[in-house]
Amino acid sequence: MFESLGKLLPHALRTPSARKSVEAAMVIASTEEALRDVFGAETTARLRVVSFKNGVITIVCERSVYAQEIALREREVVACANRRLGADMVKKLRPTG
Question: Model pTM greater than 0.90?
Answer without folding.
Answer: no
